[in-house]
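Need Adenylosuccinate synthetase's 3D structure for a figure. Predict it.
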Amino acid sequence: MAVDVLLGLQWGDEGKGKIVDVLSKGYDLIARFQGGPNAGHTLEFEGKKFVLNTIPSGIFFDNTMNLIGNGVVIDPITLKKELDKLKDAGHDLLAKKNLMIAKKAHLILPTHQLLDAASEKKMGDGKIGSTLKGIGPTYMDKTGRNGLRIGDITLVDFKDKYQKLVDKHTSMLQSLYGEVADFSEREAAFFEAIELLKQFPLVDSEHLVNGYIKDGKKVLAEGAQGAMLDIDFGSYPFVTSSNTTAAGACTGLGIAPSKIGDVIGIFKAYCTRVGGGPFPTELNDATGEELRKIGHEFGATTGRPRRTGWIDLPALKYAIMLNGVTQLVMTKADVLSGFDKIYACTHYNYQGEQIDYMPYDICSVEAEPVLKEIDGWNEDLTGITELNEIPERLQSYIDFLEAELQVPVKWLSVGPDRKQTLVLQ
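Structure prediction for Adenylosuccinate synthetase:
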């Protein structure tokens, strides 16, 4: 049995959490493979709303096991808060025994967050737009071979290892940024959270996942952020610190490339971005503000307003190519209801020529979008449940996208609730 991968194809916030939730009952294991608490996967059902930062989006199904994989970076404090909120809402994951944590997942320390904030502050106008969750500094320690991992919390010398890394961080804060900070309160919360995490199964996740595959069980790898934020192939340097593409599922879970099955790519019917960086189709006008208002485009984790714009087909084609996408999910089609005309970027005017692909640099060299006008639809989509209820103009938009992208749109999301999802094929 192969591992299916579900990931975002834009700059994040495509609706991955909802779709994982919709699909979870058909899988034996849901495994997060990268990112950290900068993710905000929103799920709505039965009149309740949940935002998951680190925990996989399959935890609401009793028969589905969930794994925080080795490619994830974990803030114990944030994870404890997440677990406590779920418990208060009637979902005690410790009691349900449906969450496991990879021993090789790296830990975010309180000082990682201080370094993150100090670095952003020093960059001034050139800042990346970090969520200030300590993600970047943690991945830096991981690649620098200084990091602490979940498996270390069971060792007798864990506090010594912790202190050694903290001393390094505080020295950097003072020498590089001239900052001395008191993080004693957050440090106490860190160790309190560590004691909770010790109660969960800490596993050699590469053996676990490959065991599921060998036994013929169904596994879904859940990505965070989006393909255009990939550390290697995104709009560098305005990217995240991990590989958000399907290749990241291999290193983030310990599976061979030959074990990848379907790659399910999610995209919005329009486009959004949080933080700095290029955004060729961005709308800095009343239309962009209307998209933000109707689509409730504010970060699930940070609350920051998202930048909005029309769909970008060169970027989507690029993401589909990088990930080997076999199926597509279009979300937030309902947000476009009421626009007489909508637009799709089909090409860029770039350095004096018209191109239909993602070039090396769109950060320092502007890519001007070439827009195709498309008839919009006025019908309210949020209550439709049958395919014959899809407005003709929306169906034409879907047909246009399938022809351009050469991949079938299999699911259509018309609202935030798990029930507001139609299977098209």
